[in-house]
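I am writing to request your help with a piece of structural work I have in hand. The matter concerns a single protein, recorded as an amino acid sequence and a row of backbone structure tokens. Could you please explain, in whatever detail you think fit, how the structure tokens follow from the sequence? Thank you for your consideration; the sequence and its tokens are set out here:
>
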Amino acid sequence: MAESGLKFYILASSPGLSPRNLTFKHGDTFALFNPEGDITPGGMGELGLYHRGTRYLSALELFCCETKPFLLSSSPSPDGLFIQVNLTNPDLFFGDLFLPRGSLHLRRLKLLYQGDYFEELVFTNYAPHYLKIPVILRFAADFADIFEVRGVKRIKRGHLLPPEVEEDRVRIRYHGLDGKTRATEILFSEAPQGLSPGEARFLLEVGPRERVNLALAVRCLEGEEDRRRTLREALVLRRKERKELLKKSVRVETSNEQFNRWLARSEYDLFMMLTRTPYGLYPYAGIPWFNTVFGRDGLIVGLQTLWFNPDIARGVLSVLAQTQATEEDPVRDAEPGKIIHEMRFGEMAATGEIPFGRYYGSVDATPLFVILAGAYYERTQDLDFIKKLWVHLELALQWMENYGDLDGDGLLEYRPSLEGLVNKGWKDSHDSVFHADGRFPEPPIALAEVQGYLYRAYREMARMSRALGKHDLVLSFLSRAERVREKIHRFFLPEGAEFPALALDGRKRPCLVKTSNPGHLLFAEALKEEEALALARKLLQPDLFSGWGVRTLSKREILYNPVSYHNGSVWPHDNALIAQGLAHYGLKDPLERIFRALFEASEYFPHARLPELFCGFSRRAGEGPVHYPVACSPQAWASGAVFMLLSASLGLKFTERGLAFVKPRLPEFLSWVRLMGLRVGEHTVDLECLRYGKDVVINVLRKPKTVEILVIK
């Protein structure tokens, strides 16, 4: 998901984000802390409190009794809403007093809510005598744009304004080149004994077995906003939001506690990445580098979670319809009808230093928009929503045929951008598309998976046209779909080729490189049965299948590197889409191998959280997968992978009268799965799926008479 080639490369001159660091988000605000709960230098310098693409807090360090406390534990809360850190004192002398380690317990509770960061510090004295505890909080705000943090060098910056210090607060201000004044306001629950623009000093008095609280709030301000929330008020609002999400989502219970950990973490992270917009929920892509709207990512998350909570897909479609391009703008890669690639809100986007304020570089987001709309209709039968969306679907179709097909051959192609993306599929790093000898292809480039998306987009347009009574369009869309399918067979599966081509270059010469990309043709159902079976076998061969999942690139290829972003790594969302495709063709054995691989990989990551990607080294006995140095974690489509894997395994499909389980299978690590509160039209059902060898029995625990449930073996 790198924004471009080398110009906007995520610079990693030192080790990146530790998996033990603490990450959380709410809306347009996210924060990264070290395990002790501090914001310190080190690593890639990415720790901080960020809001709308700007870092509002670049340092926050706690000193107790003139030293750093010892870490006992730190983790997200069980519901994922806040972070808790437990600390204690080392052996130390202050004054005439010796304080043995463990005498003082310090709990830090951290919470975010709509641009506000709250922290409550609770000091408990377990020493047998009265203590006067000197506490220091050091802080700073650099107002760095997220792209500066990533390593992009700026010729010029805005300037800091004189700080404002009052009795119980500090305000640090910055006037940017975009004309905006941003401010970090730090407020304390009690006036410090000493307060300066970078430090607050307290002297807390606490008796034996007594407890003393100290709280601070950090407000990220654009303009002259005045917010007066407290931590408790924010926590109540966060819990209310979560309760509403849970109410509309399926509750999943299984026989395997480790799998439940992975599932619960994925659900918490998915809910955390969801951002409320005026048009509905939208899953922001990932932390730290992609905490914003990404079209492709949101569309794939919508597909992954469609059975689990269709409101996510509806929100994605609504937001992307509202931001659909209406005019040509070569700098932003915008053309009428095109679906947005990403939106940025920081200073560098506003000044045009980066082209990603509203950027439309993806070649695949537009057909995926149509696919999700069709899948949403199949899932919900919500024809009124499709009627409202229809004008945007027509515009998307016009883009695909008038702008996306650069040479008039009926395929979707792209050219590199001057300022933005070099490659415009999901593998958008500069070196991800190449010929077998390592040469980069001349444009325009047609990617294999994008043609599959185009095929399925036409099929979905036919489905929605039929539902809307536009019968004159149905055969036309089906005919166009078949023409695309024929071209996929002719150009991407040339006679004598060992494996489907990754792409076609500008002369229609295939890039005969073995990658995971053609696996998405399975997801699109764009292959014939025998082609799908042959591809499934090859995807699971050792050169592509690492033991932890399907690699992005075969070990045999000239540019293979297991530590690369797209040329040998393993991406959970990529594997989930392949697994969904295998389910379409009833290929449950290879699907189960992928499902098991990702489940077992989750056991090796902190909190059972699968990251954006991990390295593609072959699996070794007794060792886990190797971490990728600058992977986003959490990442929305990595969190969504488990939901797609589970529904693919069960063969879950929705019909006009209810739902069907097509060749249902559960992997060996799951004896049973319960789906509680599964929405079917206006009703909900409760189901239990029991594994007997390779068979699955569906027990209906609760359903209305009008809902039909089928099992198709």
About this structure: The mean pLDDT is 93. The CA atoms of residues 348 and 354 lie 6 Å apart. The first strand starts at residue 22 and ends at 26. The domain at 248-650 is CATH 1.50.10.10 (Glycosyltransferase).
